[in-house]
Amino acid sequence: MDKIKNMSLLSCLCEKTASSIAVTNPANDQVIGFIPSHDNTAIQQRIGLAKEAQKAWAKTTAKQRAEIMHRWYQLLMDNQEDLARIMTLEQGKPLAESRGEVAYGASFVQWFAEEGKRAYGETVPTPLADRRIMTIRQPVGVAAAITPWNFPIAMITRKAAPALAAGCSFIVKPAIQTPLSAFAVAELARQAGLPENLLVIVTTEDAVMVGELFCQSPDIQKISFTGSTNVGRILMRQSAESVKRVSMELGGNAPFIVFDDADINLAVKGAIASKFRNAGQTCVCANRFYVHDAVYDEFSEKFSNAVAELEIGNGLEANVTIGPLIDEKAKEKTQRLLNDAVNEGAMVSTGGHALDGQFFEPTVLTNVTHLMSIVQEEIFGPIAPVIRFNDETSLIEMANDTIYGLASYFYSRDINRVFRVAEALDYGMVGVNEGIISTEVAPFGGVKQSGIGREGASQGLDEYLNTKYICLGGM
């Protein structure tokens, strides 16, 4: 593979066989290479090895684990360019975005290397003089994850880093479209000194088999999943039989609100960043735009002009800001939602065309109403429907009118409104005058049917720890 200096990052590649899995570049459909396909027996074997490795890992000190994780972080950053190129080749996003994701993904390794040292217990005041009460924090055991293709490095490190810092082992099935990033990250962890079988990658096209195996295995104590709400429901049902701990980061339908007192230029800049990053293929990207009637025309015009300037193309090419959609199915869904919106009365302000291959023009729709299907569904593509509103009360009702509750955004310079609306929005995360809100130091997660649990921050470590109560009597 050209221009990959550290070829050990691609040691996962194998020869083409009847069972191997082809990895393709969505920008041109060219095959990048082949990876192994693990069957049920092979995955069960790896779970067993992860269980044994975890026992020794749990006995190491938090400081020892942190030293390895700091080396892992440094290797991720030292290999940032190679990792970014691998990601763009298999996922399609522009190289600048891939570089940013490598740094973002590495930040979780750095953060949890230190946060693992703060898994504090407590000494509890006793109600009886002859007893002492304390709590300690212990790793849950083997943790498993299923991760998506849209952020193939960050979605793994955001889960694996706290698990490893807590003393767990971690087994992950990455999306079959983007497995190379996962293998590369694991290879660097190995080079950093992480013992064998603590960070295990399994790949297969049989996602149903893996989900059932992870949920049913008595050796796995924790399941983490990022993906659709429908699949999340299935995994939760399957995990209930063995009463596994679960954390789920599921679908979103993020409102992006522009009030009449907003800084319109700042709002346009935030809208571009939030909506069109990764060609709109993010769970927290703005899905529907509510703009106050007094500034609707100004915002729509400036927004459409800015969108029209976005460069579409292969993510490896200079100045490209919009890469391809991940596959033909995603393109077909984007086209269907656009067609439905136009048939329901929406107007194309800019864009609106499917291009050759898996590319789709970034699009702005005006004359959109709240009840249109494109507003009710998660788009996961580069289309921005813009809706008028007139008063704050009805706006909050529309913004909260969804089963989802992951991210939300609004722009206003009224400090009273800032607190009032931020508290009224029924979402796990709220961006105020900011379109990009993800960071390792803040808890990431949703409410309602957007998920359970939090990733990042101190809460992300809690997901992989059990609290044990110890009572000392006869004192």
Question: How are the secondary structure elements laid out?
Answer:
Elements: E1 21-24, E2 31-35, H1 40-58, H2 62-78, H3 80-91, H4 95-115, E3 122-124, E4 132-139, E5 142-146, H5 154-166, E6 169-173, H6 179-191, E7 199-201, H7 207-216, E8 220-226, H8 229-240, E9 245-249, E10 254-258, H9 264-276, E11 286-292, H10 296-308, H11 328-343, E12 347-350, E13 363-368, H12 373-376, E14 383-389, H13 392-399, E15 407-411, H14 415-424, E16 429-432, E17 451-452, H15 457-462, E18 465-472
What does this molecule look like?
The protein is of the alpha/beta class and 475 residues long. The protein is 39% helix and 20% strand. The protein is built from 15 helices and 18 strands. The protein has a seven-stranded mixed beta sheet, sandwiched between helices. Helix 2 (62-78) packs antiparallel against helix 5, helix 2 crosses helix 6 (179-191) and helix 4 (95-115) runs parallel beside helix 5 (154-166). It starts with 20 loop residues before the first strand and ends with a strand. This is NAD-dependent succinate-semialdehyde dehydrogenase. Residues 18-470 form the Aldehyde dehydrogenase domain. The active site is at residue 249. InterPro entries: Ald_DH/histidinol_DH (IPR016161), Ald_DH_C (IPR016163), Ald_DH_CS_CYS (IPR016160), Ald_DH_CS_GLU (IPR029510), Ald_DH_N (IPR016162), Aldehyde_DH_dom (IPR015590), Aldehyde_DH_Superfamily (IPR050740), Succ_semiAld_DH (IPR010102). Keywords: Oxidoreductase.
